[in-house]
Amino acid sequence: MYEKDTIQLYNTLKEISHKKIGPWQHSALENWKKEYFFKELNEVNIANFRRHPISKGTLNFPDIPIQKDSLHFYNISTIQRVKGLKLILWMLYKLNHCYKFKLPDLSDNLIGNPICYKIWNICITEFSMRMYYYKERIKQFFVNTKLSHILEIGGGFGGLCNSLMSDNKLSIKTYVLIDLPENLILSYYYLKNLGYNIKFILSEENIIDVVNRKLDKNERVIIFLSPWMFSGLDILDIKFELFINIMSFQHMTMDNIIYYFDTIRKLEIPFLYLVNRDLNRYPIYDNYTITWKEKWLFSQNPSLGHLECLLRKNE
Ligand SMILES: C[S@@+](CC[C@H](N)C(=O)[O-])C[C@H]1O[C@@H](n2cnc3c(N)ncnc32)[C@H](O)[C@@H]1O
Predict the structure, then answer these.
(1) What is the topology classification, in CATH, of domain 140-313?
(2) 62-82: per-residue pLDDT in tens?
(3) Which residue has a Cα nearest atom 11 of ligand 1?
(4) pTM for the complete prediction?
C-alpha cells in the first residue's frame, strides 16, 4: 500500500529541494541518490525497497542482495546465504551478552520485502537486530527519566523510529525525523504502512499550519521535517528529551554538521545519543559532556573507530 502516495511525495520533495540550496545538501557520498531515485523509483521497486539498491546505504549485508535484480531470495547464491547466516548468528551472540531477549523480540516486519533469516520460523534480519539493540540501549538510559519527544537526523527508512514508537514500555508522543529527500520517501513508505500518523513540514507554509492547528494533547505523531526547514524547528516549541544520530553525521560535510548543530544547541536538548566514526570532529563539546562511551557493539572492523556515546547538556 501507499506506493502511489510515495511517488507523489517524491515528486513534491524533488521540486521543492531544487529551490532550497544550502548547507544541508547531499554529500559526495550521497549524491548518487538524486539521479538514481529519479530513474528507479516506481511502484514495484518501492514495494521491494529492502531488496533494491534504492535502499543502498541504509541496509548492511546480508539484508541487501549483492547481485543486481535479486528480488527473490532464491536468486541469492548459497555462499551469500551461508555468509549471511554466519553474521546473523554472530550478532545474536553479541546481543546475548548485553540483553536478555526472546527471539520474537527481534522479529522484523515484511514491509519492503526484506531478506529474512528464519530461525524457529521467526523472521530475523541484520537490521531488526540493530534496531532492537539501539532501542534497548536508549531504554536503559531513560529508565528513570521521561522520554516523550525525540529528534532524529538520518534515520535511514525509519527503523529506529518504529522500534521506539511501538515499544509499549515507552510512551513516545512526538518523533521528528529529518533526512535527505530520498530517505524521507523510504521512511514515509515504511512508517505509513505500519499505520503511523505522519505530518509533514516541507516548506514554510507547512510549519505555520502545524503550529496553528496545535497537536491534540493525546495525538501521537511522527513529523517529517525536510533538512532545509531544520532551522525553523524552534518555532514548533517541542521540548525534546533526546536527539539521535546513528551512522549519519559521519557522511556529512562539516558545513552540514555545523548547520545542524547550530539548531541543536538552540533547542537545548538534554541528551544526545550518537553512534558514529570520528566523534571528536563534531562541534558539540563546549555544551555537552560525554556520560557514557563504548565501542559500537556490532563493529566488525575496529580500525573504522565506530563509537557509541551518550552526551548530557552542561548545566
Ligand atoms: C548509513 S545511513 C544510517 C541510517 C540509520 N541511522 C541506521 O543506522 O541504520 C545514513 C543516513 O544519514 C542520512 N543523511 C546523510 N546525509 C544527510 C544530510 N545531509 N541530512 C540529513 N540526513 C542525511 C542518509 O540519508 C541516511 O538516512
Answers:
(1) Rossmann fold (3.40.50)
(2) 887 665 554 554 466 788 888
(3) 154
(4) 0.94
